[in-house]
Amino acid sequence: xxxxxxxxxxxxxxxxxxxxxxxxxxxxxxxxxxxxxxxxxxxxxxxxxxxxxxxxxxxxxxxxxxxxxxxxxxxxxxxxxxxxxxxxxxxxxxxxxxxxxxxxxxxxxxxxxxxxxxxxxxxxxxxxxxxxxxxxxxxxxxxxxxxxxxxxxxxxxxxxxxxxxxxxxxxxxxxxxxxxxxxxxxxxxxxxxxxxxxxxxxxxxxxxxxxxxxxxxxxxxxxxxxxxxxxxxxxxxxxxxxxxxxxxxxxxxxxxxxxxxx
Length: 262
Description:
Blueprint: H1 3-17, E1 22-24, E2 31-38, H2 41-53, E3 59-62, E4 70-71, E5 74-75, H3 79-87, E6 91-94, H4 107-125, E7 131-133, H5 141-147, E8 153-155, E9 165-167, E10 174-175, H6 183-196, E11 199-204, H7 218-230, E12 234-235, H8 238-244
Parallel strand pairs: 2-3, 2-11, 2-12, 3-6, 7-8, 10-11
Antiparallel strand pairs: 1-9, 4-5
Helix pairs in contact: 2-7, 4-5, 6-7
């Protein structure tokens, strides 16, 4: 491990240890969630269709200001995609309005962008997306302390499993990038998550035959969803998990209930 990697590891451990807001996972696991960031249209048109094929749904973290644009991920979502995914039972989360990095703007400006992103999605869909993902995975101690308690949950791109205690201010998530040669590592995570009875979150961006560096192929995505479905794990959206934990959407200061083991 080089110096940069070691420093990154130290930084992640520090951020995971401070300003925690925890709830016990109890016996809810094993659970697997699939999430999409930004999001490009193929995340829904292709990724969403694959999830639906297995009776599952995904969590879509949206940066509202990217609507109708195109970039290296392909064409970004359109307004009708938001209505369609909600009608089909997928979850709509937020990712600021301008896809701002918490490391590159002031905390005041970042707070404003988080609020603007939520407001835009409320106005477009009527739904208030209280589950959030940090753009680029860029979280700071200050943003975790200030922004975290105003939302139901905030998701990072720090790898690992959620549980036995779940930090709502910094959910851990694991990238799902590339083609089918990456399936083994994802399957290993699902097996370990099932053994530990914890909560595993995957994230990706575009889902297409020639994906970007930050996306995956339909073949990889379907392989991993299929494996998760066969593993004995439940596939739930982020909000579905939090609802079962007693974390009520729209009530940031809610009582965090512990799931009783039966």
